[in-house]
Amino acid sequence: MTNPITATPNRVEHQLTDKGYVPVYTTAVVEQPWSSYSSDDHGVWATLFERQQQVLVGRASDEFLRNQRAMGMTPDRIPKFDDLNAVLRKTTGWELVGVEGLLPELTFFDHLANRRFPVTWWIRKPEQLDYLSEPDLFHDLFGHVPLLMNPVFADYMEAYGRGGVKAHGIGPEALVNLTRLYWYTVEFGLIKQADGLRIYGSGIVSSKGESIHCLESAAPNRIGFDLERIMRTRYRIDTYQKTYFVIDSYEQLMEATRPDFTPIYERLAQSDSYPAGNVLDTDTVYHRGTGEGWLNDGDV
Ligand code: PHE
Ligand code: CO
Fold this sequence. Notes:
Layout: H1 4-7, E1 11-17, E2 20-25, H2 39-56, H3 62-71, H4 81-91, E3 95-99, H5 105-113, E4 116-120, H6 137-144, H7 151-170, H8 172-187, E5 190-193, E6 196-199, H9 202-205, H10 208-216, E7 221-224, H11 227-231, E8 243-247, H12 250-256, H13 262-269, E9 285-287
Parallel strand pairs: 3-4, 5-8, 7-8
Antiparallel strand pairs: 1-2, 5-6, 7-9
Helix pairs in contact: 5-7, 7-8, 7-12
The protein binds phenylalanine and cobalt (II) ion.
């Protein structure tokens, strides 16, 4: 028997934010209700897992692929958080905690600052294989968790959480700057390997369409990582990104974000933001996008 209390996401209300109406869930940590997953749920996992495994060969970063194998996620059934935690804890000391969905910012930062990664326990429906507007288990587990096995990236995520708590105390404009950094690195980042550009951003690796688009399409810009530039750049939440930023290494990301951001936030409070698709004279341009298919409205 499926327990109706644990088998549906416990959505509390919708809240109006700068990104439109977003669902808000209970902030509690929940036990993964593993035995309540239906065969459809396990089937969605299997389909997406196998499809992305193929798409990501030669597209995802070597570190992502290597760590994904090392974690032991398999297509046959939705992984148990407890099993993954046994591996993660001894590798980098991170731990997955089950949640109902997107968390309020401060709650999210507090988890990261303590090396806890919140994972949505429910998975999308079979008719949502290609797109859904909020993170689910596939995005969170398949997309985010492998790189938590990388010691440098694991430290970056913790530092980001601590930086988030601090930015939250400084004010909403600082949070906007920091959120852009997360978006353009953790969610949509590319990395330059000796053999070419590869994906490490979770929002890309969990999407078949964007995995191909971000590397192979002529439309988007591909620009070298630049901290303040990224913090000023608006982004897309409902279409593919117009611009992707490329890091040289996870160490570069860690080092560039080590300084105290407080003076940067002060400086940026006096500056305008850039539209998502702009290319600046100061950019290191790997590829200047043609802009094909871009919508003018909707940068956030
Ligand atoms: N150095 C940042 C600060 O002072 C914290 C941070 C580290 C933010 C890593 C993001 C990523 O706020
Ligand atoms: Co995500």
